Amino acid sequence: MNNNRFKDWANDYQIFEDLIDKNDKEIQEDVAKLVKNYLPNNESIIFDAGCGTGNTAISLMKFVPNLAIILNDLDPEMIKQSKENLKPICNTCIFKEGDAISVLQDENPFDVFVSVLIIHNIAKERRRELLELAFKKLKNGGLYINGDKMIDDKSPDKFTEKYNKRIEKLSVLKEIGRDDLFEKWTQHEKEDFENLQTIEEHIKVLKEVGFVDIKFEKQLGLYSIVTAKKPWY
Fold this sequence. Notes:
Layout: H1 10-19, H2 23-38, E1 45-49, H3 55-63, E2 68-73, H4 76-86, E3 93-97, H5 100-105, E4 110-116, H6 124-137, E5 138-149, H7 156-169, H8 172-175, H9 179-195, H10 199-209, E6 212-220, E7 223-229
Parallel strand pairs: 1-2, 1-4, 2-3, 4-5
Antiparallel strand pairs: 5-7, 6-7
């Protein structure tokens, strides 16, 4: 898979969220609520991997004002847009452009690792490396939280049916005269489906990496939220 599947999509990304799947916004708010319930203190640091246009960080700031957030994305246009979106509400945000794995290697320890709709965009052979680095860089007792497209092991056929309906819904982009975006997103969604992991596969890797207290928190349409913690040493 392309390392930067969203290159030059920053200006169009919000169109997708507004028209195609309301769960995009809901999952960001649910993740933010879980982070709020976990935070050990007001001086906690969050690492937001694959921040996109900053929507997850905006939700985090809504529930925990003045939070220190490190926002990372591979696409410079996404970083630029997230800076604009967060400028009115966050003076404690730090923006770091680059591949999440490369950025994490040089990062200082943090309290929470947040990933929303990003891991499925990373090549399968690199996903474990990302989780290993997240584990390494988290402080003892730190929280890992991932909200993403993951196949439901208990009802894979129903998941496939829901996914096909999602692709069909992309036709709304044609109705607003964005045939170009329709073609790009249709291809993107089909590539996604071929590379998704199951919920159990994700949990298995988390266990192997060393995480404990792993929980399947919630499912929203095609999205699932999984949390885990780094043990106290």
